[in-house]
Design brief:
With 349 residues, the protein is an alpha/beta fold. The chain has a domain at 11-155: Rossmann fold (3-Layer(aba) Sandwich), CATH 3.40.50.1440. The protein has helices spanning 6-11, 18-30, 42-46, 67-88, 104-118, 136-150, 168-183, 185-188, 198-206, 221-229, 255-262, 288-300, 302-312, 315-321, 323-326, 341-348; strands at residues 12-17, 34-39, 53-56, 93-99, 123-129, 157-162, 209-216, 244-249, 267-272, 277-284. The structure holds guanosine-5'-triphosphate and magnesium ion. Residues 18-19, 41, 44, 102, 104 line the site of magnesium ion.
C-alpha cells in the first residue's frame, strides 16, 4: 500500500453495513483506509475475505429486507457495536456505508448514524438508491430509509450513489477511486496559485447535506459542468443550495464557471494540477425529486401491496407502509436532537 495520503487516511474511517456496504468498504480498505464491516448475516460476512475488522451483530441471522428486524438487532447490541467501533476505528470523521433498498444496511444505517452522533462522533454517510427496475420492497425500504436519514440534524456529507446511473459494481469502483483521489489532493497537488489543505477537505466533508465528488480529464469548464449533471450520484435538485466547492483544477477549468453552473457556495477551496480536475461539492440540497420518483413507484403499487398484506396477514409490514398516509406531503424539518440514547432508539422502533 502506498504511503501517499497517509495522514488523510488516518482522519477518515468507515463502517460498512450490509452486503453493498461491504462491497464498497472492501475497495476502500484496498486503498489503505480502516474499515469495520458489520452485518446481521454471518454468511455475508464470511464472503469478505482478507479484511481486517469484521463484526457480526449479536443474534443476527440476516434481515431478508426487513428493516425493522435490523433496527431491533442494533438496539439490543448497541453497547457492543460502540465499543467495537471505538476499539477499531480512530478517526476524525466516520462514514457509514449502506444501501437503502435492503434490510440490514437500510434499517441500521440511519439509526446508527443518529446514535453515533449522540456519542459525540462526526458522522457522514455513503448510501445507495435502488435502480428503477428493482422491486417495490426495495423502493419502500429506500423511501423509509431516506425519510429517517434526512431528518437527522448534524450529519456530515451524505454521498448518494444512484443505481439508476450505472451497473452496481462499476459504480462502487468509480466512487471509491474518485473519493480517494479527492482525499489525496493535499498530499499530491501543490500550486503556487493556491493549495487545498487537510482542514479544508475535512470542512468540506463535515458539511450537512448531500455531497458529490467528480473527476474529469478535461481542459474546459464545460466538460466539468457536464459531469456535474451526468455522474454516479442522485441528480441534483434544480432549486438547490451548495455550501462548499473544493477542487483541484486542470487546464482551463475555472472555479467561477463551476459556481455559475452549480450555485454560489459559502466558500470554495482550490488548487491546480496538470492531469485532471477533481471536485467535491457538499452541503447540497437532498435530491427530493429523485425521492419523489421512489415514492411514486411505491404509491403506484399501493393497492397491490395492501392486497398482498391482507392476503398474507404480514402484520409486521403494516408499520412499514404507514408512511404512505402519514409522511406525504409535508416533511418534518430541522428536528431537535433527542436527549437520550433511549429516545433515539424508540424513534426508530
Ligand atoms: N451500488 C451498489 N448497489 C448494491 C450493491 N450490492 C447491493 N446493492 C443494492 O443494494 C440494495 C440491497 O442492499 P444489500 O446491501 O444487498 O442489503 P443488506 O443491507 O445486506 O440487507 P439484507 O440482506 O436484506 O439484510 C439493492 O438496491 C441493490 O441493488 C453494490 O455492491 N453496489
Ligand atoms: Mg444482506
Amino acid at each position: 500500500m502506498s504511503g501517499k495520503g497517509k495522514i488523510m487516511k488516518n482522519k477518515i474511517a468507515f463502517v460498512a453495513v450490509g452486503q453493498a456496504g461491504g462491497n464498497i468498504g472492501k475497495l476502500l480498505e484496498e486503498k489503505g483506509f480502516s474499515v469495520l464491516y458489520m452485518n446481521t448475516s454471518k454468511e455475508d460476512l464470511n464472503t469478505l475475505e482478507h479484511v481486517k475488522f469484521k463484526y457480526h451483530i449479536t443474534g443476527g441471522e440476516g434481515c431478508n429486507k426487513d428493516r425493522h428486524k435490523a433496527k431491533q438487532l442494533i438496539v439490543d447490541d448497541f453497547d457492543n457495536i460502540v465499543s467495537e467501533i471505538e476499539s477499531k476505528l480512530k478517526a476524525d470523521i466516520i462514514f457509514i456505508i449502506f444501501a437503502s433498498g435492503g434490510g440490514t444496511g437500510s434499517g441500521a444505517g440511519p439509526m446508527l448514524t443518529d446514535l453515533l452522533l449522540d456519542e459525540g462522533k462526526t458522522i457522514g454517510t455513503i448510501t445507495i438508491l435502488p435502480a428503477p427496475e428493482e422491486s417495490v420492497k426495495s423502493h419502500i425500504n429506500a423511501y423509509e430509509c431516506f425519510i429517517e436519514l434526512t431528518e437527522i440534524g448534524g450529519t456530515g456529507a451524505c454521498f448518494i450513489l444512484d443505481n439508476a446511473r450505472g451497473e452496481k459494481i462499476n459504480l462502487n469502483s468509480r466512487f471509491v477511486d474518485t473519493f480517494t483521489v479527492f482525499l489525496e489532493i493535499p498530499d499530491r497537488h501543490r500550486s503556487i496559485k493556491g493549495n487545498v489543505d487537510k482542514a479544508e477537505i475535512m470542512e468540506t466533508l463535515k458539511a450537512h447535506g448531500m455531497a458529490v465528488v467528480m473527476r474529469e480529464k478535461s481542459d474546459s469548464s464545460e466538460e466539468m459542468i457536464a459531469s456535474v449533471k451526468e455522474n454516479i450520484f442522485a441528480p441534483l435538485e434544480a432549486d438547490r443550495t451548495v455550501k462548499y466547492i473544493t477542487a483541484s483544477m486542470a487546464g482551463n477549468v475555472k472555479m467561477a464557471d463551476l459556481e455559475k453552473a452549480v450555485g454560489m457556495p459559502i466558500d470554495n477551496f482550490q488548487t491546480y494540477n496538470d492531469e485532471e480536475t477533481i471536485c467535491c461539492m457538499s452541503g447540497l440540497t437532498y435530491p427530493q425529486t429523485r425521492f419523489d420518483d421512489i415514492y411514486k413507484k411505491v404509491s403506484e403499487n399501493k393497492d397491490l401491496i395492501k392486497k398482498n398484506l391482507a392476503a398474507t396477514h404480514e402484520s409486521g409490514m403494516k408499520r412499514d407502509i404507514n408512511f404512505l398516509e402519514e409522511m406525504k406531503p409535508e416533511r418534518k424539518q430541522d428536528i431537535q436532537r433527542p436527549k437520550s440514547r433511549r429516545d433515539i432508539m424508540s424513534k426508530y422502533l
